[in-house]
Structures are given as structure tokens and as C-alpha cells.
Amino acid sequence: MSEIDPITLSVLAGRMEQIADEMDATLFRAAFNPIIAEAHDASHGLYHATSGDTLVQGKSGLPIFVGVMSFAVKAVIEKAARDGDLQDGDIYIFNDAHIGGTHLSDMRLVRPYFRDGKLFCYLASVGHWHDVGGAVPGNYNPAATDVFQEAFNLPPVKLARGGKINQDIIDILLRNTRLPQSAMGDLNGQLGALDLGVKRMDELLDEYGAKTITAALEALGHRAEALMRSELTDLPDGRWEAEDYLDNDGITDEPLKIRIALEIKGDEMTLDFTGSSPQCAGPVNIALPTTVATAYVAIKHVFPALPANAGVMRPIDVIVPEGSLLAAQFPAPTGGYTETILRMIDVVFSAFAQAAPDRVVANAYGTINALSIAGKRKNGQPWVMFSFYGGGHGGSIETDGLNHGNAPISTATIPPLEILEAAYPVMFRKWALRPDSAGAGAHRGGMGAVYEIEVLEENGAEAFLFGERGRFAPKGIAGGGDAAMNAFQYEQDDGWHSPPLASKMRGITLKAGQAVRLETPGGGGYGATSERDPKAVARDVARGLVSEEQADAIYGTNWREGAA
Predict the structure, then answer these.
(1) Fewer Cβ close by (within 10 Å): the C or N end of the chain?
(2) pTM of whole model > 0.70?
(3) Average model confidence (pLDDT) across the chain
């Protein structure tokens, strides 16, 4: 770190982060599907030339990709070492979740960056493609028992060799999607983002030189490690445990445990997930890269000042038992990874709440409710509306939870209903906050939402839901109450029905004029309900967020004096 002064280091850190941010923005503008263009389910970054460790990542991309993309780059490094033919202009592409983490919808592009004929670093792009084959449009198959039922599975292969695109790979990709135009548009957007990254890196090294940039990248890793160690020394030493459950795996209606033991000793920390359920038949398994990345995301929430750099994880030991659903082996299905990593974050928060309750929030709503509605238009062309849906965030020591936010694994946004209605033959009958859904407390949780979506296409459609929190409510902390659970219903000729597995179902046939309804959970409460200001309760009742009946039952009747 002595080789570069602090001011220059700060300037270069900002410049390199800006490169990743520009790559994010380029893809968001160019992508065809709204999950990338509107929801920003994508990410870009710079990665170490030999280790693949995260050096810099953009602020607009999904946090879960920070650690996961490091594993993707490492897979490419290993592939290139075996083949022995890495050259400038090469671009690798793959979506294998067991190698690169997350799930098969996330298409990864990795490009080596050369300077003066030598490998300097890697640039990487990941984006959630709208459809990559499989049994269920949109690829969230709640009944999948292996990856082959989820989507087309592509190992790391060269999309470009020495700057020349391999059209055969593109032909294979487009043949394995229901939406080839969307896939081609997203692919071109990612290629454009990588081109921009190369251009900006050229400009940066032209200005400062490779030696200075290398020194800066090394210093940033040391600084990230030092910051993490400093944060840990501010916390008490000890060991704390927490556990929570997934509703089921989509196949067998039995709960699945996620357990953690959090231990802090001086400037080091251990996150031990021993005791979590074994690998299961259904698609709520996750691969080891995803588990490690999720641990980083949870830590970043607890210590928000930490940078997106692999140095953060040096003082942290993540223990994941072999054979568990947190270290699933190929070809175990992983399509519902979002639900499992959300529960992981919940248990990390619950454990930290015992060590330092002022640093964490209560559990958020804990499910993205991946809902696909798909069919064919009058002209025979397929359409697939895939989206995720929001809920309430947990209360904290400072304030009530956020109403109708997105999941804490991402900085993505929920696509506006106007965009969805314009793109697909559906109509939102309702999009509103869900009263009485928040966990009570001195600071209540945020409100969940109610969505009711009607099919307009005269050919009808099929619906598929992959959700969670239908059996186990988001938890409060520091004495706060639990939130309302997830609820899903679908309309048939004889009325409304609920799925037998609570939050997962596939192949729901809908006629034109029929609808599905999601009532998403709120966030858990923070602190004892007796400490809530009666005026705040009165305000919630006046706004329709809390019913008078629930206010009386939970907070007593003193709030009525504040309403006068």
C-alpha cells in the first residue's frame, strides 16, 4: 500500500467503479427483456487475472453477483489453463449454476483483458435472460428434480475466439429458447458492455500506466480486509445461533432447515451452516459458490461501508457441510436459489441480532414470488411474462420497515405494471399495499403488497409460481412481532383456489378473464410493541395500513387518543 498515495488510490477506485457502472448502464439500455432493462437483474465487474477474485463491481448490479461472478471467472481461468489457448479478444459464455452459482437463467460472459500482450485482468457480465428452455417458460420450475428440467445447461465455451464470434454457439443458444429475439438482444447488450469495459480500461491504463493500476488494485484488496477486521473488533466476542425454514422443496411437502452458528473472535468471524437440511429433490438447492456469495451479501448489509472487493472475505470462514442443500452437487436442481439465499440472509440477521441488534433489521418478506404467465397469441407466437414481486422490509432500531420493497439480495426494481401490461396480454386488477401484513413492534415492519393479474389473451395461458414464506412467517427481532405469511390464489370456473404446497405450483390453466392473486408478506417488527408511539399507530390506522381491530389487539387502545 506504500506504493500508491491515498488520494490517487481514492481517485482510481472511483474510476474503476465507474467503468463497472458504465457497463451496467450500457446493458440496461440495450437489453430486450424487462428483467434486465427495467429490473436491473444484471451485473458487471473487474476480476483478478490469476485468482479470479472480485476487484471492483458496479453499484447498480445485484449484490449476489459480487461473490458469484468470482467463481464464474475462476471457472474460465481453469478452462483456459486446460485448453492453453487464451488470447486477446476471447469471450467465454456459460450459465452452469453448479460452476458459476445462482441459476441457469443468469447468462455469464467473461472476457480476458490484455495490456501490451499480457493478461491484466478479466471483465465479466451477467444478466438474467428471459427464457433459456426447460419445462417451464421463464425457467422457475417448482417441480424440477434435476437441472435438465429447468433450462438449457451450457458449460464454459468460447463465444468469441481472438475477436471473431462463433456463430455456431449463438445458433445453439437461440434454438434453446422460446424467445430468441429477446435472447439475441440481451446477448448483444452484454457484448456491448464488455466492449465498453475494454475501451475504458484502455483509457485508464493509457493515463496512469499498468504499474500504478496494479498497485491500486492490490491496495484496494488490503484496504477491504483492514476495514472488515476493524468492523469485527468493534463487536463482542461470542457465539450465537439461529435457524429458519423453507416451506418445502416443491416435491415433498416437508420443511427444510437452514441453520447458522455465528462466531466472532477478535478480528475474525466464522459463519457455520452445519445442521442445515441435506440436499433435497426439488429446486431450492444452491451450489457452494452461491452460498459463499450470499454470506458476503448478508455481511455487506450488516457493514454497509464495506467495498465490493474479495478482501472483505479474508477474515471470514464460511463453513458449509458437504451433502447439504447449501452445497448441492450436479445435477441437483437450483432454479429456486433466490428463495434459499433469502432465508440464509434471514438467519444471518437473526444471529447478528443477538450480538449487535443495532446493526441489523428484522427479517424482510423473504420471497421473490417468481411468477410466470405464458401462452400463445392469435398468430401463434409465444409470450412469456416472468417477473418477481415485492414485499415489506424489516423494522430497525431507527425506523419502520420499507413498504413494498424488493428483496435484500438485490438492488433491482420491480417492473412497472405499465411496462408489463404494454408487453403482455394481461391486466393488473389490483396493485396495492396489503393492510395488516407487517410485523408489530416499536418500529413495525414494512407492508407487503397485493397483486391481482388477469389474463386477456383469448387463447388463455398457463401460470407457474415459485415462492416461499407460505408456512413460516418473516421474524421480528429484539422483541418485535412476526409478519403475515405469503398467500397465493388462482381463479377457476368454480372460484378461487390455493396450491397444496402453499407457495409453489405449476401448470395452472387460466382462461381469458381469469386471474391469479399474490398477497406478499410484510417485514418483521423491531422492538417491543409496548414501546411504539401511539401517534404512529394512529397514523397507520388513518392511512389504512393497520386495521382498527389489529391495532387494538396488538397495541391496546391508547392509540385512539392520538387519533383524536
Answers:
(1) C
(2) yes
(3) 94
pLDDT value for 137:
86
pLDDT tens-digit series, residues 312-322: 999 999 999 99
| 3-class DSSP assignment, residue 227 | helix
pLDDT digits (tens, 9 = 90+) for 469-518: 999 999 999 999 999 999 999 999 999 999 999 999 998 999 999 999 99
Burial class (CB in 10 A: 0-12, 13-18, 19+), 557: exposed
Q: By three-state DSSP, how is residue 212 classified?
A: helix
- The three cell numbers of residue 89 are 479478444
What would the grid cell of residue 212 be?
A: 500504478
Question: Strand 106-115 to strand 238-246: parallel, antiparallel, or no bridges (unpaired)?
Answer: unpaired
Q: What are the Cα distances from residue 144, in Å, to 39, 208, 352, 372, 504? A: 25, 51, 34, 15, 12
Cβ atoms 462, 509 nearer than 8 A: yes
How far apart, in whole angstroms, are the C-alpha atoms of residue 371 and residue 385? 8
* Residue 300 clears pLDDT 70, i.e. is over it: yes
Segments in 356-454 forming alpha helices (H): 417-423
Query: How many angstroms separate the Cα of 491 from the Cα of each of 367, 375, 465, 514?
Result: 22, 17, 14, 6
Average pLDDT over residues 295-307: 90
Alpha carbon separation from 275 to 261, 539, 553 (Å, rounded): 9, 43, 37
Smallest CA-to-CA distance from 250 within 471, 465, 501 is with 501
d(CA 544, CA 554): 16
Cβ atoms of 487 and 496 closer than 8 Å: no
User: Would you tell me how many other CB atoms lie within 10 Å of the CB of residue 196?
Assistant: 18
E-strand ranges in 514-554 read: 515-519
- In 3D space, the residue among 286, 144, 248 whose CA is nearest the CA of residue 486 turns out to be 248
- Which residues are CB-contacts of 202 (< 8 A; sequence separation ≥ 6)? none
β-pairing verdict for 42-48 and 54-57? antiparallel
Quick check: 474 and 522 in contact, CB under 8 A? yes
